[in-house]
Amino acid sequence: MNVFDYFFDSIKDWEKPFIANAKRRVTFNSLYQNSSRLASFLSREVGSQQNILLVSPNSEYFITVYLAILKSGNVCIPLNQGTEQENLNYILTQTESRIIFSVPQLKLSERVPDSVSVLEEKDVEQITTSESPVETQPAFDPDRTAEIIFTSGSTGEPKGVMLSHGNIMANTDSIIEYLKLGENDRMCVVLPFFYCYGLSLLHTHLRVGGSLVLNNSFIFLGSVLNDLKNYRCTGFAGVPSHFQILLKKSDSFKTTQFPDLRYVTQAGGKLHDVFVQEFVSAFPKVEFYIMYGQTEATARLSYLPAEEIRRKPGSIGIPIPGVELKIIDSMGNPLPAEKEGELIARGKNIMKGYYRDEKETSVTLKDGWLHTGDIAREDADGYFYITARKKEIIKVGGKRVSPKEIEEVILGLPEVIDCTISAQEDPLLGESIKASIVLDKNHDEEKMRERITKHCSQHLALYKIPQSIEFLKSMELSATGKKIKQ
């Protein structure tokens, strides 16, 4: 089945709005009709299984184009609007894309070769008023590639994660099941759709007939709080920085009532326990789901049930429905409970591979298992804990140190908004520990250094205490809201 037909299986005739805060009424039916018409155009003019770029902020336009590309049997490549010219050129060359959907303000027609056609919102509006909807394709192969999502590669060049129609359907079903989503759910979306976490919000709420509130300006915290209240959102999804900023930078967030908010989800990196507990203490009736995943897994691999948030602090939870997780040693042998090793995963949501990169694919996918590159352990109850990324482990005088442990301790100080632990070269130890810290307001830096060092000495072994402490004015965030390590 084509994932488009899966999404609209039971809701294509609904006149209910899908985008709750759109300037014009965007119903399920109008979205279905417009996407189908654009898909008809693409089938005729482009064919099928061609790579098509989509560069746009979250909007009705993005959703319409994205769905149309999937429906036409072509491959969607959603990109960050801030993609550097060098990476754009690389992706265009790698994918041999000859068509880009974009918005006027990005002026992509001036940045790409003449051989590449750029279609903007006005072009899509003309097409959707003149075309007839394309029909359902019952014999469609779900293993066909639906999208390629580019992520940062270890060599500096972006890696294209190939996800099939079947991958998307499998992950969508799993997320709907464990979050218990239904047609009355309304998600406040601050995550961009070019990011797999953001796309999962689009996929799940479309499938169940829920709705979205699009907010592209998280930097204005007041607008987010207003959207949560005014549009009666039942859900909010964010990466760690979103929750850190809401809890530490907003004067009113923790005292504001959100009577319709049923649950929040957090993924995209570890939100340290101090922030999790601060949130659940402020909003005891809101279900808090910690989740873990990778683009290579379509989005999601595990979740911590909301009722376990206090009993299993620091855990990424249990496998989502349809996914297996296990811990292995360096030889690939399964490890027993409480032993640290690499976390690997298997399920129908695991990617097809990296686009035109057999070497990286063979390293990451082995015998049907995704090798995540994360060091983890499983407790006696079957709950998993990420200890560190393989590449993040710091070796101080031969001793292995996980940055997360030190960050957790420093974040226990109320003045600290954010802490990043990194390695720096050391002539005696090989590597020593550096702490980069963001404070909630202006403090005497020398006094704070003393306070942080004393606090660490009370909670950490001597070799884990940072040798260097620097203070930053603010967190540097990527377009997905993830923290950029300095």
Automatic annotation (TrEMBL):
A GO molecular function annotation here is: ligase activity
The cross-references to Pfam families, in alphabetical order and at most eight, read: AMP-binding, AMP-binding_C
Keyword entries, A-Z: Ligase
Occurrences of domain AMP-dependent synthetase/ligase (ranges): 15-355
Q: Among its keywords, does the record have Ligase?
A: yes
Q: Where is the signal peptide?
A: none
* Stretches assigned to the AMP-binding enzyme C-terminal domain: 405-482
InterPro entries linked to this entry = AMP-bd_C, AMP-bd_C_sf, AMP-binding_CS, AMP-dep_synth/lig_dom, ANL_N_sf, ATP-dep_AMP-bd_enzyme
Acyltransferase recorded as keyword: no
What is this protein's record name?
Long-chain-fatty-acid--CoA ligase
| Species of provenance | Muriicola marianensis
Q: What is the lineage of its organism?
A: Bacteria, Pseudomonadati, Bacteroidota, Flavobacteriia, Flavobacteriales
